[in-house]
Design brief:
Layout: H1 11-15, H2 18-31, H3 36-39, H4 41-44, H5 48-54, H6 63-72, H7 84-89, H8 100-103, E1 106-109, H9 125-129, H10 132-138, E2 142-145, E3 149-150, E4 162-166, H11 173-185, E5 189-194, E6 198-200, H12 204-211, E7 223-225, E8 242-245, E9 250-253, E10 260-262, H13 268-284, E11 288-291, H14 308-314, H15 328-343, E12 346-350, H16 356-363, E13 372-374, H17 394-407, E14 415-416, H18 427-430, H19 434-450, E15 454-458, H20 479-488, H21 494-504, H22 532-547, H23 549-552, E16 555-560, E17 565-571, E18 575-582, E19 588-589, E20 599-602, E21 610-611, E22 616-622
This protein binds 6-O-alpha-D-glucopyranosyl-D-fructose and calcium ion (CA).
Length: about 625
C-alpha cells in the first residue's frame, strides 16, 4: 500500500506508481523523450499541479484529476518495490519457479484459416486433427486454439453465441474431444480462447435480456433506458460504443462490434456463470485459457464520460474507464481461485494497453491473478498505429525487450511473440525489401527462442508467410476493416483508403494456410509457397530451447546495445549462449569477438569480422 497522490505530489512520485509509470512511459515514448527527464531533478521534483498548469493548452481541464483518480485506484505495489518485510509476509522469494508453461513452445491455431478438411474453404477441427503430426514434428508442445464455439461470426468467433457448443462449420463436440485426446496423446497441451468481456448479441442471455424487462439477464449487460446515448465512449470497430434497440427503448454497450455485447462483471451472477463455464471446459481436460481483452472486464461505476484529450491521444474515447478497471484484480483472483487453481490450469491474459508495471501486478506469482500476459507495445513503433506507412526499426524492439527482461523481475514471466491473428506479419513492417524479408523472419525466430520467456508461434510463421497482396475491399472480410471503410468512405479517394486499410488489416494473418490441398481454393495472388528452410529453423530452435535449460531459465544479460547491434548472453551454471544480431538492413561489423572460446551453433559457418543485413548468430559453450 502507498500514500495517495495529490496535485501537490511530484512527477517523480507519479512515476513511482505502477499506473503513473506506465502512462508516463507511454507518453514519453510517443514524444521521444528520455525517462531520465522525469526521474532527474529538474522535472522530477516538479509538483504535478505546476507541470499540468504549464501544459494547460494541450490538455483538457480536469485531466490531472482523472489521472490521479486512476493512479490512486491502484493501491498495490509490485513485488520489487516492497520492503523485505512485506515480501516475506506475502511469501515472495527471488527464486524462479519451474512450470510447464514456462518451458513450453506454444503454437497459435486460428481455426478458420488453419486447415480445411472437407473442401468448403473454411478451416475446421478435422483439419487440425490431420496436422497434429506436423505440429509434433515441428516440436511445439502446446497449442492455443482461437475460438471454436458456436458463433454468428460477426468477428470470426470472438462473438460467442453458445460457450458449450462447437461452431457448425468447424465440426462437432466429438471432433473436439478427438482433437484434445490427439494432442494429449502426443504430449501436447491445449489452451482455449476465453472470450468473456462480451458475448454475441445472439447469446441466449442477451436475447432474454431484450425480450423480458423482468429478466435477471437485463443486468448481465450494460443496458440503459432513455432517449440520449448514455456516454461518449467509442467502439474499437468504428462509431460509438452503444447500439440502440428501438423496440425496447434500450441502449446496449459494445466496446467491439454491434454484435459483441459487453458483459456486466459487477453482477456476481455473471461471474458465477462464467466460472461455471470455465470449469466445464477444464473438467473436460483442457489445460488453460488465453483470455481475450481480459483487462477490460471491470468498468468504472456509472460509466462516466470519457476524457476527450485521452480519447484523441489513444484513438478511442472512454478507455481510461475500463482498460485497468477498479475491480480487475478482484475479479481475476476470483476466477483464478474458483476455476484455474483447482485445475492447476494455465492463464495468459490478452491485455492491450497494459504496461510493464501494471503487468507486474497482473502476473506477479504471489498475487494469483494471471500466469502471463500479452503486451502489445512492441508491435508498432511509438507514434504509429497499425496501417501507418513506416518502417519498423528493430533498435526500438531491442530497447523495449531489454527493458522488460531487466525489470520485469523473477516473479513474472514474459510471453514472446511477433505475430497473431490481429496483425499483419511483423517481418513486413521491418523491411519492404522482398529479398530481406526471410532474413528478418530468421532473426525474429532466433530472438523469440533465445530471449527469456515463453514463445508463441503464430500459424504460418514456420512457413515463412508474409503479407498478402489484396486487390480490393471485396477480398477483406474482417469486421474491423469493413467498418473502417464504411466509416471513412468519402474522406479520401477509395484507392487511398483501401491502401491504408490493406497495410494494417487483420486479414493478412487470416488467409487459409498454403497446404498442398488448399492451393486450388485460393486465387493465384493469394497463394504463397511454404518455406521448408524456415520450418527447419523453427524445428531446430524449438529443440535447442527444449534441450538447454539455460535458454529457458538462464539469466539474461545484454553485452552490447549500440546502434543496430544486439548482443546478449543467456547462461546458467552449466552453459552459456551468446546471441549476436545485426538489427539493420546494412552489413555491419561483428561486435562479439568470442573471448570465451564459444562454438558457433547457428549458422554453421560464417565469415568473421562482418555481419550481413539482419544476420544473427548463436554461440554456445559448456562451463567446466
Ligand atoms: O485489432 C484490434 C482492434 O483495433 C485490437 O485492438 C484488438 O481488437 C484487441 O487486441 C483485442 O483483440 C481481441 O478481442 C477482439 C477480437 O476482435 C480480436 O480478434 C481478439 O484478439 C474482440 O473480441
Ligand atoms: Ca472445412
Amino acid at each position: 500500500m502507498r500514500n495517495e497522490l495529490t496535485p501537490e505530489s511530484t512527477v517523480r512520485d507519479l512515476y513511482a506508481t505502477p499506473v503513473g509509470h506506465d502512462i508516463l512511459a507511454k507518453i514519453l515514448l510517443q514524444l521521444n523523450i528520455s525517462e531520465d527527464l522525469v526521474t532527474g531533478p529538474l522535472i522530477g521534483r516538479m509538483k504535478l499541479k505546476w507541470l499540468f498548469g504549464l501544459a494547460k493548452k494541450q490538455i483538457a481541464p480536469g485531466f490531472l484529476e482523472k489521472l490521479l483518480h486512476l493512479v490512486n485506484s491502484e493501491p498495490d505495489v509490485p513485488a520489487d518495490q516492497m520492503t523485505p518485510m512485506e515480501r516475506e509476509l506475502a511469501g515472495i522469494t527471488d527464486e524462479v519457479t519451474h512450470a510447464w508453461w514456462k518451458e513450453a513452445a506454444f503454437y497459435q491455431v486460428y481455426p478458420r484459416s488453419f486447415a480445411d478438411s472437407n473442401g468448403d474453404g473454411i478451416g475446421d477441427l478435422r483439419g487440425i486433427i490431420g496436422r497434429l503430426d506436423y505440429l509434433k514434428n515441428l516440436g511445439v508442445n502446446a497449442v492455443w486454439l482461437s475460438p471454436i464455439y458456436d458463433s454468428p461470426n460477426d468477428d470470426n468467433g470472438y462473438d460467442i453465441r453458445d460457450y458449450r457448443k462447437i461452431m457448425t462449420e468447424f465440426g462437432t463436440m466429438e471432433d473436439f474431444d478427438e482433437l484434445l485426446a490427439g494432442l494429449h496423446a502426443r504430449g501436447m497441451k491445449l489452451i482455449m480462447d476465453l472470450v468473456v468481456n462480451h458475448t454475441s448479441d445472439e447469446h441466449a442471455w442477451f436475447q432474454e435480456a431484450l425480450r423480458d424487462p423482468q429478466s435477471k439477464y437485463r443486468d448481465y449487460y450494460f443496458l440503459r433506458e432513455g432517449e440520449e446515448i448514455p456516454n461518449n465512449w467509442t467502439s474499437f470497430f468504428s462509431g460509438n460504443a452503444w447500439n440502440h434497440y428501438e423496440e425496447q427503448g434500450l441502449w446496449g454497450l459494445h466496446l467491439f462490434s454491434k454484435k459483441q455485447m459487453d458483459l456486466n462483471w459487477d453482477n456476481p451472477e455473471v461471474r458465477a456463470d462464467v466460472i461455471e463455464m470455465i470449469n466445464w471446459w477444464l473438467d473436460k481436460g483442457v489445460d488453460g485459457f488465453r483470455m481475450d481483452v481480459i483487462n477490460y472486464i471491470s468498468k468504472e461505476e456509472g460509466l462516466p464520460q470519457g476524457d476527450e484529450s485521452i480519447g484523441a491521444m489513444m484513438g478511442f474515447t472512454g478507455i481510461e474507464h475500463y482498460f485497468y478497471g477498479p475491480h480487475l484484480h478482484e475479479y481475476l483472483r476470483q476466477v483464478q481461485a474458483e476455476a484455474f487453481a483447482p485445475h492447476e490450469a494455465f492463464s495468459v491474459g490478452e491485455t492491450p494497453g497494459v504496461g510493464r508495471e501494471m503487468a507486474k501486478l497482473l502476473t506477479g506469482e504471489a498475487r494469483k491473478e494471471l500466469n502471463m500476459i500479452f503486451s502489445f507495445d512492441h508491435l508498432e513503433m511509438p507514434g504509429h498505429v497499425r496501417g501507418d506507412e513506416y518502417t519498423y526499426d528493430l533498435n526500438f524492439y531491442r530497447d523495449y525487450i531489454c527493458d522488460w527482461m531487466e525489470n520485469y523481475g523473477p516473479q513474472c514471466w514474459m510471453s514472446l511473440f511477433y505475430n497473431n491473428h490481429d496483425n499483419p506479419r511483423m517481418a513486413c513492417k521491418v523491411t519492404k525489401d522482398p529479398k530481406l524479408v526471410k532474413k528478418v523472419q530468421r532473426l525474429l525466430a532466433v530472438m523469440q527462442f533465445t530471449l527469456k520467456g515463453t514463445p508463441f508461434v503464430y500459424q504460418g510463421d514456420e512457413m515463412g508467410l508474409v503479407n498478402y497482396d489484396f486487390r480490393s475491399m471485396e477480398e477483406l472480410s474482417d469486421v474491423e476493416a469493413v467498418n473502417y471503410f464504411a466509416e471513412h468512405r468519402g474522406e479520401k479517394p477509395d484507392e487511398e483508403l483501401f491502401a491504408q486499410i490493406k497495410r494494417g488489416t487483420r486479414d493478412h494473418s487470416r488467409v487459409l494456410l498454403p497446404w498442398n490441398e488448399a492451393a486450388g481454393q485460393l486465387p493465384e495472388h493469394l497463394r504463397q509457397e511454404p518455406d521448408n528452410e524456415m520450418f527447419d529453423l523453427y524445428r531446430r530452435l524449438i529443440r535447442m530451447r527444449k534441450n538447454h535449460p539455460a535458454l529457458i531459465y538462464g539469466d539474461f544479460e545484454v553485452l552490447d546495445r549500440s546502434k543496430d547491434s544486439f548482443v546478449y548472453r543467456r547462461a546458467d551454471e552449466r552453459e552459456t549462449f551468446v546471441i549476436e544480431c545485426n538489427l539493420s538492413g546494412r552489413p555491419k561489423c561483428e561486435v562479439w569477438k568470442n573471448p570465451e572460446g564459444l562454438h558457433l551453433v547457428w549458422p554453421k559457418r560464417v565469415p568473421r569480422g562482418k555481419m550481413g543485413p539482419y544476420e544473427v548468430r548463436i554461440w554456445h559453450g559448456k562451463k567446466e
